[in-house]
Structure formats: C-alpha cells, structure tokens
UniProtKB/TrEMBL annotation:
Residues 18-297 form the Phosphatidylglycerol lysyltransferase C-terminal domain. It comes from Albimonas pacifica. It comes from the Bacteria. This is Phosphatidylglycerol lysyltransferase. It is found in: Cell membrane. InterPro entries: Acyl_CoA_acyltransferase, LPG_synthase_C, PG_lysyltransferase. Its main location: membrane. Keywords: Cell membrane, Membrane, Transferase, Transmembrane, Transmembrane helix. One of its GO terms (biological process) is phospholipid homeostasis.
Amino acid sequence: MRPGPEALAAAEPVLRAGTSPDAGVALTGDKSLMFLDASDAFVVFGISGGSWIAYGGPVGPAQAAEDVAFDFVEEARRAGARPVFYEVGAEDVPVMLDLGMQLHKMGKDAVVDLSRFSLEGSSRKKLRAAHARAGRDGLTLEILSPPHDPALIERLREISDAWLVAKHAREKGFSVGRFDPAWLGRWPLAVVLRESEPVAFANVMTAGDGRAASIGLMRHADDAPSGTMKYLFTELMLQLKACGCLRFSLGMAPLSGLAPERSSRLSDRFGAAIYRHGGGFYNFEGLRAFKQKFDPV
C-alpha cells in the first residue's frame, strides 16, 4: 500500500529531525510506511514475495523507533511474511538483536568528514587540478532550495530521461531515488551549469538540521564534459561544508567489489556512491580510473 500525502507529510519532520539523510528515500512514495500511533516513528518497507523488506532501520526517537520496529516484525509475522531490514546502521544493531534478527554484513556506510575535506595540500593536487579544469570548461554548481522552478524541473527531466535511454536503464526505486517532481521538490537540488544550461544534477537530502547530507538521485547530460560528476561531488561538499554541514554520506557500498569499508581512500567512497546511484550503467573506464584521481583522507 503506497503512502498518501498525509503519511508522507507526517514522515518528513521525523526524518529531518533524525541523523540519517539517506532515509530521505522514504518519501519517494514507492514504499509503504508503518507508524506508531503517535506518528513519531516509522518503518519504511516494501513487500516482495513472502518478505516484508524494511529499508534501513526504524526512523524516529530511540524508544519510539524501537517500538515501531517491534510492531513491524510482529505485523509481518502475523501476515505470514518474513521481516527483513536492509541497510541498517551500526546504531540499529542492538535493536535488531533484540528482535532476534540474523545480521549479515553487506558493506559499510561511507561518510566524508567535511571538517577535514578541502582541496589544499600536496595530497589534493590532482583533485585541485580537476576542479580547476572544470572551471575552465565553464562549469559552476548552484544549490537551489525548494520550491523549484517548473521549467527547471522539466529540463532536468529531459536530462534524466536521456540518461536512462543512453544507459538502457529504468528507474531503480526502493533504496535509491527516482525522478519524481514531488519528491525532488522536498529537497535542495545541486545543479551543474555550463553557460547557464544544466548539464548535471543531484538532489541533496539532509537530516539533523542540515548537519548531515546525502544524495538520492544524480544524473548528467550526454554532452556533459568529462569529469562533471566528480566536479559535482567535490564542489557540492565544499559548499555544504561552508554552510555548516559536518557529514556527507555516500551511502552503503553495494556488492560491487569496491569494498570502501576496507579503504580510507576518498576515491573508493566516491566510486561506491556512483555505483549505488547507477554505476552499473555508468561506463567510466571502470571506477578504478575514477578513484585514482583522489588522495586518501
């Protein structure tokens, strides 16, 4: 059962008050929401076969989140389904164990400490040069707050549609965002411009009063200059840092062989994020060539 406008409206303040910006995909409308009676905590989930699959851990204050997680498991079992929690964080492990869930490590949330991120120093020489080259190519990045201009959304839709066609892909949904004007309208948009024309974009999901951020969807035009997405990440993090954001989450690494949990290289983490949001469709000379452009943090 898809959530209606009232359910999505009730979920949004709970999500924004939390600590996980990745939970912003709960508002895409393609998943169900289970609330406590007080509507101060919820679980976002989908049904596949005989399983109820929650995306992430329960969202909300600690005790309320624990209570709604128990409700979710009980309701699933009552319906004869198997409850599953996908991509839970370390903070949710105690609750999962209390629920009797079996834990399987699939990756690790790749988080950039923005207080340490900069383009200064010898270790950032290549990244600094790439950033400067993007400037010479005429690229700029603007973070636009909602409400968004309908004309802009339509232009971004054109970019998104062309991207999907070029990659022979369809929208993914569930654990990543999809192009939907209503969902995009809930968040700031990071738009890369060349001569005032959009060539790439990403939405910027936030939590914790803007102290943590992540992206749920990113796309680029076919004629975007080489290095555009790297520029988007780099410039976005610099601007978020300047606005007081402390953490930028690239999401959990998928089963892609990138294994960023074993590496301190920022490049590996960028690669994980790009894979997560469509790396199976991106044909950068593999992500290996991409990650070599970054130094460790």
